[in-house]
Structure formats: C-alpha cells, structure tokens
C-alpha cells in the first residue's frame, strides 16, 4: 500500500549488496560460522527432541526456565498455535501438560508456579548455552532445591531436562553429574535465532505442536528466498531494503501490528530479534509492538498525526481458526447497532486492519501489509525463517553484526560484579561509581 514516499530506485539500488549479503549468509552457515546456524535448523535431525517431547507430554505440567531467546520463542509458538487459556483447559482437551515460563527473577511468580504444580507430575526444563545467565540460573536453583527437598536428589533428576551447549558452560557437566536428560543447543545458533532448535521445539512438541511441520514451513520459505535474486521478487530482500531505506530517511522505529490475538507474542519475539540484532554502533530502528484492533484505541492517533518517524507493518490472517456471527437483538435502545447484526467478527477485524493501513497511508506514513493465508505450523515456521532472514540482511545493509550483543554483555558483567562473582570486582567498582553519579540527579518524592 502506498504512503510515506521512499525512493524506490534507492531500494532497488540495494540489490547487489543484498545479493552479496545473502550469499555471505549462506556460505557462512555452511562453514559453521558462529551465529549463522539458524539457516540450517530446518534440516537438522529432531528425533531426540521428539522422543523427549513424547515423554514430557505424559506429565501434568511443564516449567521452562530461561530468558530472552530461551523464553520468547516458546511463548510465541504457544500463543500462535495453541488454544487460548491453555492451562485452564481440562486434561481431556489438552494434548500436553500445562505450561509455565519462569523467565524474570520474580519471587512472587516463582513461588506461585511452585504452588500450582505437583512436583511428582512436573518436568523442569532449563535452557542456557553458557549456564551463566544470572536470572535463569537463579530461578533454576530455586526449583532444583525445592525438587530435591520434595523428591530427593535422585528422583528430582528424573524430572529435569537441560538444553545447553555440547561442550561449554556449567549445565553440561551438571547434567552428567546428576544423570538427567540433556539436549544440545547448537553452538552456531544464537539465543534470539534459536526458536526452531530444541529451545523452542521441545516445549511446542510436548504440547502437541508439530515440530516437523514448523521445520517444513521454514525450509520451504528458505528455498523460495534462495530462488529469487532480485529485490522486487524476493520478499526478504525487499522488506530489509525498505526497512533500511526508511531508517536512513529518519524513520527510526518499526511498528509490527498484527490483527490476530494469536500473534501478539510474535511481536514480542520480533522485538528482541530486531532490537538486539540491529541496535549497535549508534544505528538501528526501535521495534514497537502493537495489536489490532486494541491499539487502534491507544496508538493510532499518534501513528496517523504524530511524527513521521515510523515504518508500519499491518499483519492479518486470511482464514482465522474460529468465527462468530454477531447476533441480532430486539432492544430498541440498540437499534443503532443494526449495522453489526449478522456480520462476522473476523470481517470486522479484517475491515479494521484495512482501515488502519489506509488511514496511515493517507497521513503520508509508510505502511506494509502482510497477509498469512492460515495460521498453522507450516506458515508460522515460514514466517519465523522469513523474519530471521530479513533481520540478518538488514544488519548486513547497516554494516553491523546482527549475531552479537555487546551491550547486553556489559549489563551482565555489571550484575556479576555486584553479585560478587569472582573476577568481576572491577565491574562492580565501575557500576558503583556510575550509580553514585546518577544519584546526584535523583529527585526525592
């Protein structure tokens, strides 16, 4: 849809760079270069994941301990492909256990999770490549301690699955020590690109999502992208080019606004993927999460009449899984609502998405429309592979490494120092000095 003029010749001018970038990504992936392994995930063997998932599916509950890429991808898969209010469904209507995510370091959340589960009927999955992520390990140590108290160390180990690096970190030797199940997080796959690895596939498969169909959709998308070598034929090249072109015109925010509740978590997954991959060296556009039609009533005023600093993507699903026809009613006070009678809720939502895109375009702002034919495993797998490819290519155009996170590491190092981790005392001193400077500007209430 038109709106927010950008020089399409400039977009086309990125073609040679994108072609080189795409070739570099694929060559680097085949060489096993760090961070590029996500391209190969659709072809990896998942027999171990499926076997472990089948075992987990017999339990009443599953608690996953992880943060960032070890959490957001799981929640995205579940939100998109499982019925709403999954944990409230009776066991007869669920194909797998209730699911709880322990991500943030929040005592209230962790205690409530523990109070809601029966440890004898629960599996705990801990995910960390290094085993040094403070939040993840703090949460896991809480649950591991409770498990040992209630079940004893030997039986507790039978309720734990570790997903970690094959060689590095503390979780691999921990798994060997206690004798629990272990799956490998590929060394060449970064956390935010890991949803199609055991990190995301295990919980999804345990809850009845087809891991193989997710990977089939991702593989199909990858093949299509590999076959198209012009910027206006290859959708990943085009969206990467549009994103960077608009960024260079001062639109330093990208808004993703699906009109499907099931895709709300997709926005959260995308926000980490985009923000953590591209926000480096003073560059990068800020991801903004929105949900239609809810945010028509909270953000559209800003989007249409606010500053021209955003690129918008409105996302819809052509064939939603459920439908409701809005019923008629005879009360005279409601006669003004007769235009709704007999209409479908999905039609209303579809018209709202179209109207939002049109209103944004009319205001002169740039908007992209994406329609997913149907929200199932195959299409979602394709969308995951697509957005990962777009993100990697945008990083190539911006001349940043989309596969590291130096800003995140600095914050981690400060935390290690403050918590007294050995060899991080200098980091503790530095953050204390910075905090003292900040305190000079505090305002008392």
UniProtKB/TrEMBL annotation:
Pathway: Carbohydrate biosynthesis; gluconeogenesis; Carbohydrate degradation; glycolysis; D-glyceraldehyde 3-phosphate and glycerone phosphate from D-glucose: step 2/4. Its EC number is 5.3.1.9. GO terms for molecular function: carbohydrate derivative binding; glucose-6-phosphate isomerase activity; monosaccharide binding. Keywords: Cytoplasm, Gluconeogenesis, Glycolysis, Isomerase. InterPro entries: G6P_Isomerase, Phosphoglucose_isomerase_CS, SIS_dom_sf, SIS_PGI_1, SIS_PGI_2. One of its GO terms (biological process) is gluconeogenesis. The keyword Isomerase applies. PROSITE patterns: P_GLUCOSE_ISOMERASE_1, P_GLUCOSE_ISOMERASE_2, P_GLUCOSE_ISOMERASE_3. GO terms for cellular component: cytosol. The active site is at residues 276, 297, 412. It holds the Pfam family PGI. It is found in: Cytoplasm. It comes from the Bacteria. It catalyses: alpha-D-glucose 6-phosphate = beta-D-fructose 6-phosphate. Catalyzes the reversible isomerization of glucose-6-phosphate to fructose-6-phosphate. Belongs to the GPI family. PANTHER family: GLUCOSE-6-PHOSPHATE ISOMERASE (PTHR11469). This is Glucose-6-phosphate isomerase. The gene is pgi.
């Amino acid at each position: 849809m038109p709106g927010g003029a950008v020089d399409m010749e400039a977009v086309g001018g990125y073609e040679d760079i994108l072609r080189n970038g795409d070739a570099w990504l694929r060559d680097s992936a085949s060489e096993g270069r760090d961070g590029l392994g996500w391209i190969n995930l659709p072809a990896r063997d998942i027999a171990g994941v499926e076997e472990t998932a089948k075992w987990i599916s017999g339990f009443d509950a599953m608690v996953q301990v992880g943060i960032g890429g070890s959490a957001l991808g799981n929640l995205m898969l579940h939100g998109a492909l499982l019925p709403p209010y999954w944990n409230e469904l009776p066991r007869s209507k669920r194909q797998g256990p209730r699911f709880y995510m322990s991500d943030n370091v929040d005592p209230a959340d962790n205690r409530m999770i523990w109070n809601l589960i029966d440890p004898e009927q629960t599996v705990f999955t801990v995910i960390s490549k290094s085993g040094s992520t403070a939040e993840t390990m703090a949460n896991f140590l809480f649950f591991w301690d409770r498990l040992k108290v209630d079940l004893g160390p030997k039986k507790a180990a039978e309720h734990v699955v570790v997903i970690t690096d094959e060689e590095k970190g503390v979780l691999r030797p921990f798994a060997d020590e206690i004798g629990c199940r272990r799956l490998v997080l590929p060394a060449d796959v970064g956390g935010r690109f890991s949803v199609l690895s055991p990190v995301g596939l295990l919980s999804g498969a345990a809850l009845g999502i087809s891991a193989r169909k997710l990977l089939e959709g991702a593989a199909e998308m990858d093949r299509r992208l590999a076959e198209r070598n012009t910027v206006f034929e290859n959708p990943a090249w085009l969206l990467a080019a549009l994103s960077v072109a608009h960024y260079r015109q001062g639109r330093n925010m990208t808004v993703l606004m699906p009109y499907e509740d099931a895709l709300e978590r997709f926005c959260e997954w995308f926000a980490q993927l985009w923000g953590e991959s591209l926000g480096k060296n003073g560059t990068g556009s800020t991801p903004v999460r929105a949900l239609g039609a809810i945010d028509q009533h909270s953000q559209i005023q800003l989007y249409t009449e606010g500053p021209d600093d955003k690129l918008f993507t409105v996302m819809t699903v052509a064939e939603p899984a459920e439908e409701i026809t809005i019923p008629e009613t005879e009360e005279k006070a409601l006669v003004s609502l007769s235009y709704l009678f007999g209409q479908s809720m999905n039609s209303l939502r579809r018209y709202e998405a179209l109207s939002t895109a049109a209103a944004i375009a009319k205001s002169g702002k740039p908007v992209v429309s994406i329609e997913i034919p149907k929200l199932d495993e195959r299409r979602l797998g394709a969308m995951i592979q697509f957005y990962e490819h777009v993100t990697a290519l945008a990083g190539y155009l911006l001349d940043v490494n989309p596969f590291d996170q130096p800003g995140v590491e600095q914050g981690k190092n400060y935390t290690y120092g403050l918590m007294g981790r050995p060899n991080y005392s200098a980091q503790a001193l530095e953050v204390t000095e910075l905090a003292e400077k900040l305190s000079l500007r505090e305002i008392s209430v």
